[in-house]
Specification:
371 residues; mainly beta; Immunoglobulin-like; 2 domains; seven-stranded mixed sheet; 1 helix; 21 strands; 2% helix; globular; disordered N terminus; binds copper (II) ion
Length: 371
């Protein structure tokens, strides 16, 4: 057990911010509790010249336009991916579905994907500069399992101020994601996540070392949004001091796929979410349950083959037409349509109440198969 008192900080200089006495209210940069101070004495030795560098800064003034015309406040990471020579890597494809972003810099929702090859050394350089605000954030590379100082979990290392370099080397190709792990319940809901894809030595187009190949790729991060959590401005430390910030009640109204409203927009070709493919092609769906609630995927009459889960290949692929998932799970699903599948397939993600299994809403997109 850590000593709670050691972990309490008071940025505002106003009150003591004790665990029983704080309010959790106030503007950005005010009193925060349950925030874990950085320990520079423990920071890892950084090996120079990484194979990939992921520069990430923070935006907390983004927005997403829903199909009903409502604009919802979004936070996330922006930045660029660099190769070993420091050259910017442009990310092919529209996997992140960058819709409706009003964020500063190149803020996208979901955040800019990270992509790396198995065995490479990576640096994620997090720059937490909130225009003078005393924000704290981290980057947690979910499923990668680096040592604790690079794991980006606030309560097992620290929350970041200023600039911090996470160092990691993925050992297993597959589908991952990264997210903020400071005041996690709120920050993840606000949108602070993005895809993290690890390719095998064979490169893009092969699922894992010695594994199946694919022609097309869809990265679908499916999430539910309760707009009452997305206050603008929302306090980054809301709820940390014990006040009631409403984070114990999730009543989602919107059901989204990779930052696009799944009510209508995610089914429209303009969104980059639907897939157009031909018989003979192979599609790899990289499906991320990026919400808090259970989800059920329905493949709209297509058959899929699950080849990997949570960044690990399955011993044997499993054929599915539906799939039940829970929070933070990832599944790699191959779709290989035959001539009998020619047509328009509505892909549905039902989002379920975690107690009653009642369907709260459905995010929809399409796979269109032609001859
Ligand atoms: Cu954060």
């Amino acid at each position: 057990m850590f000593k709670l008192k050691d972990k309490i900080e008071n940025h505002g200089g106003g009150n003591g911010g004790g665990p029983g006495g704080g309010t959790g209210g106030g503007g950005m940069g005010s009193t925060a509790c349950y925030i874990y101070p950085r320990n520079t004495a423990e920071e890892p030795v950084i090996v120079p010249n990484p194979d990939k560098t992921f520069n990430r800064s923070i935006y907390m003034n983004g927005s997403m336009l829903m199909d009903d015309g409502t604009s919802v406040s979004i936070w996330g990471f922006s930045g660029q991916n660099l190769d070993k020579n420091g050259q910017v890597i442009s990310y092919p494809g529209g996997s992140s579905g960058m819709s409706g972003m009003g964020g500063m810099m190149d803020g996208a929702f979901p955040s800019v994907p990270m992509r790396i090859t198995e065995g490479e050394l990576a640096h994620t350089v997090l720059n937490v500069m909130g225009g003078g605000m005393m924000w704290r954030h981290t980057v947690h590379h979910h499923g990668i399992e680096p040592e604790y100082r690079s794991d980006g979990v606030g309560h097992t290392s620290w929350d970041v101020t200023g600039t911090y370099t996470y160092q990691w080397r993925p050992s297993q190709a597959g589908t991952y994601f990264y997210h903020c792990h400071t005041n996690t319940v709120l920050h993840a809901e606000m949108g602070m996540y993005g895809a993290l894809i690890v390719d095998p030595p064979e490169g893009q187009g092969t699922a894992f070392a010695g594994g199946p190949t694919y022609d097309l790729e869809a990265i679908w991060a499916v999430d539910e949004i309760d707009p009452s959590w997305h206050k603008s401005p929302q306090n980054w430390s809301a709820g940390t001091c014990g006040g009631d910030a409403g984070l114990n009640e999730l009543n989602p109204k919107y059901f989204i796929i990779s930052g696009v409203d799944g009510n209508q927009s995610a089914s429209q070709d303009s969104s980059n979410i639907p897939v157009n493919m031909t018989v003979g092609q192979t599609l790899l769906i990289r499906y991320i349950n990026a919400g808090y609630l259970p989800q059920q995927l329905k493949l709209g009459g297509l058959q899929g083959s699950i080849i990997a889960s949570d960044g690990r290949p399955l011993p044997n692929a499993r054929t599915i037409t539906t799939l039940d998932t829970v929070s933070a799970e990832r599944y790699d699903i191959l779709i290989q349509p035959t001539s009998a599948d020619i047509g328009n397939h509505v892909i549905e993600f039902d989002i379920l109440d975690w107690v009653t299994n009642k369907v709260l809403g459905t995010a929809k997109t399409r796979i269109i198969v032609s001859a």
